[in-house]
Amino acid sequence: MQKFKVILNPFFNVSTLFVVLIAMATLFVNGCASVQTREMALEKGQEKLSLQKDSICFLSVKTDNKFKPEWPPEVWAMELTDQKTNKKINIAVQSKSWGSLLKKGLSDSFTLNKGTSSWEGLVSFELPQGKYRLSAVRGGCNRGIGIGAAMASFDFPFDIPFQVYDKECVYLGRIEMTNRERTSDKEIPSGDTTSTRLPQQHSGFGTGTFDVKIFDNMDEDIHRFKAEYPVLDQMKITKRILPPWSMPTSSK
User: Fold this and answer.
1) Can you give the pTM of this predicted structure?
2) Mean pLDDT per 10-residue run, the chain (252 residues)?
3) Which domain holds residue 222?
4) Of 207, 140, 150, which is closest to residue 180 (Cα–Cα)?
5) Do the domain assignments include residue 6?
6) Distance CA 211, CA 153 (A)
7) Residue 237's beta-bridge partner residues?
8) Is residue 166 in a domain?
9) Whole-number Å distance between alpha carbons of 48 and 39
């Protein structure tokens, strides 16, 4: 994952600032050029759902920033790894289209206080039969007013195996991530610790770490999925909960 260091010049005009914010958000949502990026499997108002080609996986995700509550950590993308080919797949939890990112960037950049320390979302993605790993969760927070707007980001590693069978709808569980202050150098930072940008420090992503819980919340989550996407009403959904998070071997 390519890293960027950005220092906001006080003489930036607003349009330049938005370009920087959106370019950085696009990088996080779309990933690197060599990584395949996919939109989520479900869309609002969708009337048909086919399992003729791939299976569909479901997750609910909640993030919270107890360390710096004024910077709620939004998930922008989830990275998967195909265990057979070792190729990366980037799931765009936030739409990867420039129009959607621009609209969101304009809204977020003129919001001084989001009024909550948490973010929550329903995630769906299509995969062919095979073995995979959830390898990273990425995102951040845009906040401020106009030229004072700023963005902080997180990029937290996972190493969680899961399997997808042929032509199935499968619920993988609920992931809850809580950012807290790091108390040891052995703990994995939530985000980039080398950036000179003040927002990275003020947000707690540069000085914090995530505590991660993964658990079965199927009844509540599938109820929410069906309320959001009625096309699921007639679909049989299998449960296969992801294993608990543990520190990736490469980070130990």
Assistant:
1) 0.81
2) 38 41 51 72 87 93 96 94 96 66 48 74 96 96 62 94 96 98 95 82 94 98 96 94 88 44
3) 14-44+53-244
4) 207
5) no
6) 17
7) 169
8) yes
9) 17
